[in-house]
Amino acid sequence: MKRSTKNLDVAQRLYRRRRYAQVITLLESQVFLYRNNYRYYYLLGMSCLYTGDYAGAFSYVQRALDIEEDPEGLLGLGAILLRRRQTDQALRTYLDLIDLDPHNRRGQRALQWLRTMEDPDDVLQWFEDRRIQKILPRRPIALPAAFFPVLLATALAVLVAAAFSQGIPQQFFAAPEPRAGSELVRISGHAPDQLIDISASEARFDLTPQEVEALFRRVGDLFQKGRDNLVRKELNRIAASNAAPGIKARAATIRDYLQRPDFSTFQDGFSYTEAARDPRLHDQVYVRWQGRVANLHIGESLITFDLLVGYHTGQVLEGIVPVSLDFAVLLENNAAVEMIALLSVKPDGSFHAQASSIRILSPRETAS
Question: What's this model's pTM, rounded to 2 decimal places?
Answer without folding.
Answer: 0.55
